[in-house]
Amino acid sequence: MKQPEIHPFGFDHLIEVKQKTFDNGVTINLIPLEDTRVVMIDFFFHGCKWHQSRCLQAYFSASLLCTSSEEYDADILAETIDYNGASIYSRTGFFGTCITLLCLSKNLPKMLEVMKSVLIHPTYDQKRFDTSVSMMKQSAAIRKTDVNSVCNETFLETLYGKSHRCTSFANLDDYDTLTREDLLSFHHQYICSSDCQIWMTGNITEDAIGLVHEHFGKTAWGEGQFVYQQPIWPDLQPAKDHIIRMKMPGVQSAICMGKLLPRWDHPDFTKIMVTITLLGGYFGSRLMTNIREEKGLTYGIQASLRQTLCETALMISTATANETVEQVIEEIYKEIQRMRTERVGDEELARVKNYMIGYSCRKHEPGLGLSKLLMNMYMKGCPYDNILTENRLVLDTTAEDIIDMTDRYLDVDSMRLCVVGNAD
After folding, report:
1. For 30-87, how does the pLDDT look when each residue is reduced to its tens digit (9 = 90+)?
2. What is the C-alpha to C-alpha distance for residues 235 and 373, in angstroms, rounded to an integer?
3. Phi-psi region of 97 (alpha: psi -120 to 50; beta: other; left: phi over 0)
4. How many CA atoms lie within 13 A of 258 on its CB side?
5. Considering only the top CATH level, what class is 243-421?
């Protein structure tokens, strides 16, 4: 039987996103979805880990919004959210903070009242604050004994320096000194209408838009009126040593190596992404095929790009038996060297491109997750049609480009290496 032909795929148009500007200047982005009774509303603010005055402040101020508010005590608030089958959750990092409401459209009137209360007037119930911080401290204490966590943090500190915002890792003492007032201070400064963008996805009606306008679009709200300006990038203070080895007990050692690369707005960034994906960015990558499948030296190995506001960090990370650490490091160097000197085959390069385009298609398909993709682009300052531009650049990447990107950006002599474990 003849194998069916394989045809290239992708997309050449974007889902229309309508925008409206409310009376107070807040912009709402509308992504209607058919055949759904669910509505999701994302409230985005630029205030994040980059702006916090102390460790853990941004994370807990967002994650504990739903502990209590001026209108609802802790128990009533939890019961109200559960009774309406809704959820309110948050995420915060180095690009911004997002507070999300997810509920049935029939319960939107009540849940917008709740959302307004917790978003604008949180009080951070002390008992739940203490419990949450205590639990997170226990989890952090466990991570301090994990070679992978210690290795990743130590590696990033060698790239940026220990005092850089990108390495603001919390110590156990930070959990003890964090106060409820720290959370209120961050919230009062950064959660406000002057720096709010709203994404509304799902079952969108004019009545639903009117409800959002009623609660969040008529007048200014929030204690402060923060206006976002692009931060001044701090100076890097990398470690003097390019190779760091730390002793920790255990049968496995963690390995992390890499270097700083250009940001997402650099002309070479998309070709760099293709190169990194080929090296270790998916299950069939060079590193996985060699080190996991053929030699069985690790359960998994990956090469990824950690993006922040100022730079992008290449991180090649894995864990292996203590006695095979040096062999794994040697094989990583071999694969990078092979990409610098040998032309990648057309079939393998096509497979990488199909993986990347397919992943982009899945992210852009109509669904509740689409708002997260668009929000990430907004955080970076990318235009909406950058999705199509990026896909075209992926398809246009050649085997010669892979050699050029590897030679230009993946010089192993300039990479930093961190090994944590009981290896000799």
Report:
1. 999 888 999 999 999 999 988 999 999 999 999 999 999 999 999 999 999 999 999 9
2. 30
3. beta
4. 28
5. alpha beta
